[in-house]
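Model: Ready when you are.
Researcher: Fold this.
Model:
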Amino acid sequence: MPRTYIDERWQPNSLLTNLDRFIAKKERLKSAIIDLLKNDLHKNSVNMGRADQGLNQGVRYQAVLRVLVFLRNESDVLLIKGASNKRIWPNLFNGVGGHVETREDVMSAAKREVQEETGLLIDPLDLRAVVNIDAGDRNRGIMMFAFVGWTNNRQTVASPEGALQWISIDKICEYPLVEDLYWLIPRIIERKSGQPPLYLHYDYDQADRLVIEKSD
């Protein structure tokens, strides 16, 4: 009986082995190219230290960074009524928030402020507005980042900043709010996730009345 010879190169297992080797070789080549590019970029780059950020090169506009968060639960929004002894906005309702610390990005600051003031862990938050606020100093202002988040948990902890309260969005105008919120809350609540944030500028006229400008 004649013998039947089978070329091992055409056996399924052998084919898969060769395919695996080809893929592995391709990945090694890709990795080597990336490393080469990184090395070239590093060789051509110039080290940039803190002084190169230009913070102290003459008088330039600088901003204090703040975050403001509005948490949603069904048709309600969580606001905080400022304590009567607060320096700014005592007895007025506001979103939860505060200042951005030195080693924070604005998203991390917003999540931290929510946890500190409400006890809630919210992730993700959606950036809905960036506001440049002119507070009367031509060289220094406030840059505020307003976020909206959702939660199924209505149980909050007591906050030294004031009293937390869930308020129906339809009734927020019946409450004593920080002045800009009558305009701001409806507009950032109605924006859909994924839309670009509003870009706003707050200023004050000669009678010290708030003027809100929106970028197109």
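Researcher: Now this one.
Model:
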Amino acid sequence: MDPKRDAETARWHDGKEAYATGVHIIGTGSNYVTYSEARVQSGSYYGWAFPTGSLKNVEIYDQEAMYVNDTDPTHLYFAIVLSCDGTYSGDLGLDITGNNASIVDKDGNFVRITPFEFGVKLSDGSGDLYDDSEWTECTDVSESSPARIKDGTKVGTATIAYVDKGEIETWLPDDCVNGRNTYIIEGEILRSDITGNPVGDVSFSKWHYTVLCGNDQIPIPEFGVIAVPIIALLGLVFFMRRKKS
């Protein structure tokens, strides 16, 4: 949203813009419903809606859409649409076995337990898959943690592509975009690389992704089709993504 065009009180916090909506949808395939943007529950951004940040910089941390597909018997597929390269990206978390992992702060001190014991390295472009993961805390909005894999046991490598699609959000006001390109991360994970070789559903609640600072997170829909090449995926992205007003 552009706060200069929308003075709804609930979308502001202590006189600052609390960026809220446009159109947000979640669902499976062509069946979807709208949802309201979550609010930050603690810290300096308390009360703000995701993505948090100043007017021109909020787009840097914008996670626009995420898709997962668990219908294939041999692979898990995912796609993420966002506004940052690997410098700001987090890693992908998976809660498969019911075991826990840990989150540590910047000094390596234990912060809390997280259910995402598996992780795929996206921030460095490697796609390495880890078990018994130790994760870093998000740098700004801690409640969005975990952010990145710090340590763990490498058990495989996912096939990923992290592609810069250029500045394609041409409908946005100039003071909101700040010259940000759109990036798409697409990947496939071998089920056999995951301990226990999970068969059947790995529901969307079992997946986790946020940017490094934690300034944005969105619910994760599932789509009932196999992952497709990135060029073809753009058609799905524009159908299911957040729409900014």
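Researcher: Key takeaway?
Model: The longest strand covers residues 128-136.
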